[in-house]
């Protein structure tokens, strides 16, 4: 017998579970369906982000950073340690526990907000009067009907043609998070977020890491000054990079992996590694959705086609997050999920894509919001720039991490902040002030005039704003 709901959300990743909770808050009878399983076969809501993405990668980054500090930096603080060792199994076990805590937290939130949760793979079966029928395939098959459907099925790692992931030698983000021992040699194809973060983890633990990147430059989406500073830091740490490469045949015979490639000079090269992480982007996940059963429109990349408000071509069917256009970021998915739930309720949900922050959780951290200097130049926008180094910040000195800087870009005439770019300690936290300021159309002068706590890293934000008018006080 079919179970009826006002709203059914397919997928319990950041976009899906947040959409379900917000819809329930707005008074709808809501169900959320998700197929992720934990090691025991039980439900593991949270999607890629919680299970094999944002959350576990940060757990490993934190553990590996502690290890590196113990090896190389505790002595600066007067702390003497003995024989420092890393128990990889315990580190990975802690990561798994952090993931489980987040899984359980989402299940608790569903219960708290009276969201009905179904564990299984949801697919469309047909359109019915006033809505849609969905089948849930799992240990307990169900049939659901919904007046409104929100699709939040996320994305999958993109494989290289002819080189499928085996998650033993050739790894996606999933396999990269489950490496059981430190590889002597680790190869990474792609110098994006996943490649840099996972490369950093295993480099800290002793792996020799080589990153192969097809693009001729590093972090082309970031501000050039930030990318240049970050690359210098990563190379100093021991990460090896080759840009402008063309990857050829990848062989997995024997104990390791052999990657044939052509370098930027056109010379044939071979890289031999024990493990290979491929991080060349992600593809929208519509697997098993049975979109054709109801005529749901997909684009040439397999993503669900939506308008500016996340409406699909079908009445009452919406889609959010990685499965639609726009940046594949968890926080973008969350904002879209909230906005769609509010639109269903007749409200005016809003997402400003120009104010979605980007963060890379390496050391140094990298974060930015708004336009880069190269984008402003290309668009012919007259601007002023201000920059302040963490080297001149008292809190950064006390932390022992003075790498990087904060950079402000402001309109030359109005002084409105057009972009803020940070490379350095806790950039992921500092960028929030810039997002708030830009949402309220603040000027660089506004930030420069606001009192910031001393000593704090946030003073570097104030000083960079002052630098727009060439009046820094501490540099």
From TrEMBL:
Record bears the keyword NAD: yes
GO MF terms, alphabetically ordered: dihydrolipoyl dehydrogenase (NADH) activity
Cofactors demanded by this protein: FAD
Predominant location category: cytoplasm
Cofactor: binding details: Binds 1 FAD per subunit.
Broad enzyme group: oxidoreductase
Keywords: Cytoplasm, FAD, Flavoprotein, NAD, Oxidoreductase, Redox-active center
Record keyword Flavoprotein present: yes
Catalysis: reaction(s): N(6)-[(R)-dihydrolipoyl]-L-lysyl-[protein] + NAD(+) = N(6)-[(R)-lipoyl]-L-lysyl-[protein] + NADH + H(+)
Subcellular location as annotated: Cytoplasm
Annotated signal sequence range: none
Domain of life: Bacteria
InterPro entries recorded: Class-I_Pyr_Nuc-Dis_Oxidored, FAD/NAD-bd_sf, FAD/NAD-binding_dom, FAD/NAD-linked_Rdtase_dimer_sf, Lipoamide_DH, Pyr_nuc-diS_OxRdtase, Pyr_nucl-diS_OxRdtase_dimer
EC number: 1.8.1.4
Domain Pyridine nucleotide-disulphide oxidoreductase dimerisation: 356-465
Additional facts recorded: The active site is a redox-active disulfide bond.
Family: Belongs to the class-I pyridine nucleotide-disulfide oxidoreductase family.
PANTHER family noted in UniProt: DIHYDROLIPOYL DEHYDROGENASE, DISULFIDE OXIDOREDUCTASE
Name assigned to this protein: Dihydrolipoyl dehydrogenase
Species this chain originates from: Pseudaquabacterium rugosum
Lineage: Bacteria, Pseudomonadati, Pseudomonadota, Betaproteobacteria, Burkholderiales
């Amino acid at each position: 017998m079919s179970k009826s709901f006002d709203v059914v959300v397919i997928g319990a990743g950041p976009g899906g579970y947040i959409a379900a909770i917000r819809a329930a808050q707005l008074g709808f009878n809501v169900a959320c369906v998700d197929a992720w399983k934990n090691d025991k076969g039980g439900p593991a809501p949270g999607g890629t982000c919680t299970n094999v993405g944002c959350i576990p990668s940060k757990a490993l980054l934190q553990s590996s950073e502690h290890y590196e500090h113990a090896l190389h930096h505790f002595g600066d603080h007067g702390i003497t340690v003995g024989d420092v060792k890393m128990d990889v199994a315990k580190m990975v076990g802690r990561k798994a526990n952090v993931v489980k805590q987040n899984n359980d937290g989402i299940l608790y939130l569903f219960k708290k907000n009276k969201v009905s949760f179904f564990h299984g793979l949801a697919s469309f079966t047909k359109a019915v009067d006033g809505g849609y029928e969905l089948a849930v395939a799992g240990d307990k098959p169900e049939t659901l009907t919904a007046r409104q459907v929100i699709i939040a099925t996320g994305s999958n790692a993109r494989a290289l043609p002819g080189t499928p992931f085996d998650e033993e030698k050739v790894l996606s983000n999933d396999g990269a998070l489950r490496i059981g021992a430190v590889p002597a040699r680790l190869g990474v194809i792609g110098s994006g977020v996943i490649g840099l973060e996972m490369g950093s983890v295993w480099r800290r633990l002793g792996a020799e890491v080589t990153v192969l990147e097809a693009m001729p430059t590093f972090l082309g989406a970031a501000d050039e000054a930030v990318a240049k500073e970050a690359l210098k830091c990563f190379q100093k740490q021991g990460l090896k990079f080759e840009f402008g490469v063309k990857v050829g045949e990848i062989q997995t015979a024997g104990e390791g992996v052999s990657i044939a490639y052509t370098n930027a000079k056109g010379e044939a090269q071979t890289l031999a590694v024990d493990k290979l992480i491929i991080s060349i982007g992600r593809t929208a996940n519509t697997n098993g959705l049975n979109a054709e059963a109801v005529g749901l429109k997909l684009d040439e990349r397999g993503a669900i086609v939506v308008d500016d408000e996340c409406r699909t071509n079908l009445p009452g069917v919406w889609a959010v997050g990685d499965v639609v256009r726009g940046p594949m970021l968890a926080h973008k998915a969350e904002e879209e999920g909230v906005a769609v739930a509010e639109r269903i309720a007749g409200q005016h949900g809003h997402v400003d894509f120009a104010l979605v922050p980007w963060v890379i959780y390496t050391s140094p951290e990298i974060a930015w919001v708004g336009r880069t200097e190269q984008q402003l130049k290309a668009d012919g926008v007259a601007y002023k720039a201000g920059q302040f180094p963490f080297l001149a910040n008292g809190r950064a000195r006390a932390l022992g991490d003075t790498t990087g800087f904060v950079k402000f870009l402001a309109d030359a005439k109005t002084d409105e902040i057009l972009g803020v770019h940070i490379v350095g300690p806790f950039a992921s936290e500092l960028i929030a002030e810039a997002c708030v300021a830009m949402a309220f159309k603040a000027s660089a002068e506004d930030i420069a005039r606001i009192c910031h706590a001393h000593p704090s890293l946030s003073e570097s934000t104030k000083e960079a704003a002052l630098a727009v008018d060439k009046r820094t006080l501490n540099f």
